[in-house]
From TrEMBL:
Lineage of producing organism: Bacteria, Bacillati, Actinomycetota, Actinomycetes, Pseudonocardiales
InterPro entries reported in the protein's UniProt record: Kinase-like_dom_sf
Protein name according to UniProt: Protein kinase domain-containing protein
Species of the source: Pseudonocardia alni (Amycolata alni)
Highest taxon listed in the record's lineage: Bacteria
């Protein structure tokens, strides 16, 4: 199947490649090809990696925009990473555009490859196709008539494995890139409106962690009820959100929380700690307050077990963050924000209104007023017009 045959094909044939993306690794990043592959694999399924010969380099170069000026030359195209996104059915509402997800993966991959390169020596390590049509043009430049046949089966299998098992009402997730899973409001024949979370094959470890958390911690009131689960999906009741836990919104999908909510989350983390576990990515955008079910923590993919003996509660990793050595040895941990002295943003003074000493002490009279004053001070500092305060910027590792 050639590019021209694909263009002339039926709409169903063109629809097959909606999630296709090709990442071009430049020769300056050739020694870091494995890092680039790992970066793309964080959010997309890898179909094939092709190191280019001289003739392919020339043809691929002709299909790419000229790289932006950088202090260090990027070099010629070196390799193609052929990948695929998990796409929702045509016509489904609430779907994040494939181009936006590819851009998010490219941004992560770019930073991953350059993370040990001094800023003044940065170069353009990777470029990405601008559309499925552009991806097909890059593959056509390989001069390999069998490549589309080789990847067609895996693409179709990905669509089958990641299809929602129940009728989709709309996709959920807001502006989240959805690197590990897609979430949808579905209609279940018994449970009615429910939320289904389907994990892609490359995120099977995240699925296992969340399933274990749901099964083992289901007695905790903050853990969503598990209605059903399949080989790569979880079904949860559809929880509404009254916003009762929020004092005010902040930039970056964060929000300042009521002190009693912070205390509840602190108790949740202590319950985890006593069971030899900690949690990362506990952020206001992962919280809802349902009118009937109360406070719920929606994403538990990063409930992890301590690799050894848990530290004292005051040094709990949910509060302190994970040690640098652990972060360096474990792949795929989330990029946290507001990590100055805490592991999760909900415990940062900008969110909780409590410094660490007050957070770990017993609640005192006047805590709500003191918390409110601290939050107002942070709100004033963070609410600068037209730019994001440095404390709210994600920290890459």
């Amino acid at each position: 199947m050639t590019l021209e045959e694909t263009r002339r094909g039926a709409p169903a044939a063109a629809d097959r490649w909606r999630g296709l993306a090709v990442f071009v690794v430049r020769s300056a990043a050739a020694p870091l090809l494995d890092e680039a592959v790992a970066g793309v694999a964080r959010g997309l399924e890898i179909l094939e990696v092709v190191v280019l010969d001289d003739a392919q380099v020339a043809r691929v170069r002709g299909t790419l925009p000229a790289p932006a000026s950088r202090p260090v030359p990027s070099g010629a195209p070196y390799a193609l990473i052929v990948a695929c996104d998990v796409v929702a059915p045509v016509g489904t509402s609430g779907v994040r555009a494939v181009a936006d997800r590819v851009a998010a993966v490219l941004d992560y991959t770019d930073k991953r490859v350059l993370r040990r390169v001094p800023p003044r020596e940065h170069y353009l390590p990777v470029q990405a196709s601008s559309s499925p049509e552009h991806a097909l043009a890059l593959l056509d430049a390989l001069g390999d008539p069998g490549i589309l046949h080789r990847i067609a089966g895996p693409v179709e299998d990905l669509g089958r494995r990641c299809a929602m098992p129940f009728p989709v009402v709309r996709m959920l997730g807001g502006t989240s890139p959805g690197f590990r899973a897609r979430v949808a409001l579905v209609h279940h024949p018994v449970h009615g409106p429910s939320v289904c979370k389907v994990f892609r094959p490359g995120a099977h470890e995240a699925y296992g962690r969340e399933l274990r958390a749901r099964l083992d911690l289901g007695d905790l009131p903050e853990v969503p009820e598990l209605l059903e689960h399949g080989p790569n999906w979880l079904l949860t009741p559809f929880y509404g959100d009254t916003g009762r836990h929020i004092v005010r919104r902040l930039p970056g999908e964060l929000a300042q929380l009521r002190p009693e909510v912070v205390r509840t989350l602190l108790r949740f983390c202590r319950d985890l700690h006593e069971r030899g576990r900690f949690v990362l990515d506990l952020s206001p955008h992962n919280l809802v307050w349902d009118e009937r079910a109360g406070l719920k923590v929606l994403d538990l993919e990063f409930v992890l077990e301590y690799p050894g003996e848990p530290p004292a509660w005051s040094d709990c990793w949910s509060l302190r963050g994970v040690p640098p050595a652990y972060r360096a040895s474990v792949e795929g941990l989330p990029d946290l924000v507001l990590t100055r002295g805490v592991g999760n943003s909900v415990f940062h003074p900008a969110i909780s209104g409590m410094r660490r000493a007050r957070l770990l002490a017993e609640p005192r009279r006047g805590e709500a007023a003191h918390s409110g004053a601290t939050q107002l001070a942070w709100f004033s500092a963070l609410g600068t017009v037209g730019r994001l305060h440095p404390a709210l910027r994600g920290k890459r590792h």
